[in-house]
Amino acid sequence: MNNSNIKNDAGLLALAVRLVIGWTYFSAFWRRSILENKLDPEAAGYIGEKFNHFLPNALGIKPIIQYLVENPDMLWLNMVIFTIIEGIVGLFIMLGLFTRIMSIAVFGLAMGILLGSGWIGTTCLDEWQIGSLGIATGFVLFLTGSGQYSLDNYLIKNNFAITKKKWFGWIGSGVLPIKERIFSKTVLMGSLFIFGMTLMTNQVFHGGVWGTLHNKSVKPKLELSEVKIEADTLSFDVYRTEGVDVYGSWVISIELLDEQSKKVLDYSQEDLASLDAGNILNYYVAKIKPGKYSLIIPLGAKAKMKLTDATLINLPDGSYTLKITDISGVF
């Protein structure tokens, strides 16, 4: 390879992109399994709970996420497999080994991040940026392959038998076997698709293209459903669908009000902090639970709450309002 060819080696020019995107994915494996054990369902920081955070506003893949968070054993198995895949893909991308097929994996992993968690990010739309940049870099690495500093290049230079196969150009590096007359169209169509996905998700998740900007990670939002009063028990489903993902909503009050806004039922901060486990029936791996000073509701958590009080027996017919207050004052 002469000096001119080295200067125009697209794989070489993309070296920084390859190393950084490779480490991005390998580091997920590294921090979950080596630096800390984030694959232990009983440990703080379990990756399955983070996955549960994606659920409320995921785009297109919500049924898959819901199935997994409702089935903890399947969730754990998938988190382990997912982490191993990230580790292999990241390592191979950094080494420049089978670069093109690994770049397809990068594209797929990034698409999952974009659709699953692109709505999360308190200040910089963090997950949306990671996902959209990930699918773009995956596509670029597929086009360029790896250049001079890669194991693919080592295999090619030393005439390994695998590099003589017609399909090596599709999974490794070297000249991409796409006909010259359609190559530029392939680049254009792929780029426009990725740009379109970027704009679409930016608009759906954040209103970032037109209309009013919104950020679902700024303050907690609770959704209530299945509200019932039977005998001395008030039951309802509570589901936290918005807010910061790194800590919970701290509920300090649950009240039932009559038509004159008079309190019929009042569970105070102290009452909620001392709730029995039987009062909370969680649906997912992210669990609503009593904390030291309040009821803690993580992002994506959903549970059936059962609150008992003798005053609910023979409650007069009428309209009643269920009011839940977060420590921030939001209700």
Can you describe what's shown?
The chain is of the alpha+beta class. It is 46% helix and 17% strand. The protein folds into two domains: 3-206, no CATH class; 221-326, Immunoglobulin-like (Sandwich), CATH 2.60.40. Strands 3, 4, 6, 7 and 9 form a five-stranded antiparallel sheet that branches. The chain has a four-stranded antiparallel sheet with strand order 1-2-8-5, with no helix packed on it. Helix 3 runs antiparallel to helix 6 (72-95), helix 4 (47-54) packs across helix 5 and helix 6 packs across helix 7. The model has no long low-confidence stretch (mean pLDDT 93).
Short description:
The chain has twelve helices and nine strands. It is an alpha+beta fold and 331 residues long. It folds into two domains: 204 residues, no CATH class; 106 residues, Immunoglobulin-like (Sandwich).
Spell out the blueprint of helices and strands.
Layout: H1 3-7, H2 10-13, H3 15-35, H4 47-54, H5 62-70, H6 72-95, H7 99-117, H8 126-144, H9 151-157, H10 168-171, H11 180-206, E1 221-230, E2 233-242, E3 249-257, E4 263-267, H12 269-273, E5 280-282, E6 289-290, E7 295-297, E8 302-308, E9 321-326
Antiparallel strand pairs: 1-2, 2-8, 3-4, 3-7, 3-9, 5-8, 6-7
The percent range for helix content is 40-55%
Beta content comes to: 15-25%
Uncertain runs are none
Number of helix segments? 12
Structural class: alpha+beta
Question: Gyration radius, to the nearest Å?
Answer: 26 Å
What string gives the helices and strands in order?
A: HHHHHHHHHHHEEEEHEEEEE
Number of E-type strands: 9
Mean pLDDT: 93
